Amino acid sequence: MIPKIIDLKNILEVEAKELKIGDELLIFHHNYLNDNPQKAIFIPKIIPSKNLWISLPREIYKKYSYKTNELTSNPIIQLINKKFKYSKVSKIYKCLWDDLDFSEKKLINDKCSDFPFLVKYGEEAGRWSNIILELPKEFFSFLGWYIAEGGVDKNRVTITQTKKIHPLRYDKIKSILKLLNYPFSYDNKKIIRINSRIIKEVIVSLCSEGAGNKKIPLHLLNRERALTLLKNYYLGDGNLKKGKWKRYSTKSSQLKNDLTYLLGALGEYCSIVHPKKSDGVFRIINTEGRNYKRKTHGLINFNGTTPVRIKNLKIIKEKVNVYDIETGNGWFIATNGIVVHNCYGVFGSKNFPLFCLPVAESTTGIGQYSIKKTIEKAEDMGVKVLYGDTDSVFLTNPSEEQLNDLSKWSKKELDLDLEEEKTYQFLALTNRKKNYIGIYKDTQYVDMKGLLAKKRNTPDFIKKVFNQLIELLKDITNDKEFKQAKNEIVEIVKNNLRKIGKPGAFNLEDYAIRIEMRKPIHKYDKVVPQHVRAAIELRELTKREIQKGELISFVKTKTTDGAKVIDIAKLQDLDVKKYKELLRSALEQVLDALGISYEEIKGIKKMDAFF
Predict the structure, then answer these.
(1) Residue 526 has pLDDT above 50, yes or no
(2) Residue 514 pLDDT > 60, yes or no?
(3) Nearest Cα to 599, choosing from 473, 493, 499, 472?
(4) Which end of the chain lies in a sparser environment, N or C, as judged by fewer CB atoms within 10 Å?
(5) Under the phi-then-psi rule, with left for phi > 0, alpha for psi from -120 to 50, and beta for the rest, what region is 242?
(6) What rounded mean pLDDT belongs to the chain?
(7) What share of the chain has pLDDT > 70, as a percent?
(8) What mean pLDDT is predicted for residues 472-496?
(9) Considering the entire predicted model, what is its pTM?
(10) Contact at 8 Å (CB) between 164 and 123?
(11) Residue 497's Cα: distance from chain center in Å?
(12) Per the CATH hierarchy, to which homologous superfamily does domain 508-573 belong?
């Protein structure tokens, strides 16, 4: 079923086949960025491996072993002695990446922080690059310029910006590349070239190539990185409409979608102007907010959703992959349409025009039955089930044959398609539903669901502590490493508890809590929350009216109101006890999943430690 707007006033659920050109659909607006994106890229994982060489300088090798026939217990040195050949001219040990097996590649990935391996294409000519590509802020400035004005050929990336018209922008691009230490040249007219095939392949992998195919690597973006990328993209390919609204232009349908998602994740709103036949350019224009305007209807508030008008319909007959994303209000957004997934949340709401409690309860019953039967079948097959809820089950080390058999059974008995979605090398489950941390196998990407420490209004100091714990968990692949990590986690939490409120530990801004004003101040007439009390203080301080939708940044204090806006607060104002409670609340779910009680953090051992 599709959420369709009727007369710009009501929402009605209709079947996809009933849609026609001109209908208005709703898509959910609130998007999320990665709170804990990776800090570096292991290059061989994302670029083509054909004729890719890997090397280690002789001077690094000599720190661990002097000659290849010397006995050693170091697994990296053993691998080099076994598979790499030595070049007397370059004074390096080198090997084709494709000549290594999976376990050898994984070993290099795991140990590359200690061993500075290099990569390049071709055995003879070419510049060696570090196997790890760091992702500082300047990298995302570079991505913004590439997406806006970049191109590639076989061995380089080019960025075009006419120096005569935009001298400051031309020099800005050069400054970015200098800070990144990328090899580049320029003609002092309009072309800047990054002369590295490795960099070129990384950029193509992340952002594609060609004006009609470019994209944004959303998985690498947190808020800071997103703002940096967007700012530089705008400098290259943006302008102001009527001197007021930011407007972005692209020929890429995927980039158009990515920009729309990114603006939503940053709390902004936009409209999309589809291309005229002559230019093929999408134009994405910032708008005032969630109020949707039509000439004859005034302003309509759709509560965090964006109305989209259908301009074209196409029936796809062939089989295609459809990817969907769960949204906060229970809808799923799919590439081939917008469908209602969590029907209970919709049909069980009295605000929904088609409210029907029996339908909601039936939906829940069918889902629970399907999950229960799937769990029973998996256990009958000898597969250990860790967890099951709503639309997924977590299994411990099932074989390919077991997965295939379970999938066939589900299709036959339940008419449901089961498929492998995620494989974790480490998984921590809490005792709450939809609360877990998983570390993807091989990539070490962190998958977090429902944890307090990743919420938008969580203070930054808690996120920093949380990220310390995550970095530890990334390296866990067996029980021994897990036990060692548990001890380190206890120490990290203890140390950070002691730091709270101490000078030099965290900045005052790290304690800030940011909450949106859901309504004007005068409408909070009964219960006045802390952020509203802080907003009142801000109004008195600035002599301006606080608007609905504004983010109020405040800290918890020992004052009567219990809160102060960040603008006037001091470190000594902090209510240290409250912040320790906040840290405990945020981390307790994770610690619980790891088998660590808060009593252990305080130094009180559990009873089972004595037996």
Answers:
(1) yes
(2) yes
(3) 493
(4) C
(5) left
(6) 80
(7) 77
(8) 85
(9) 0.50
(10) no
(11) 28
(12) B family DNA polymerase, thumb domain (1.10.132.60)
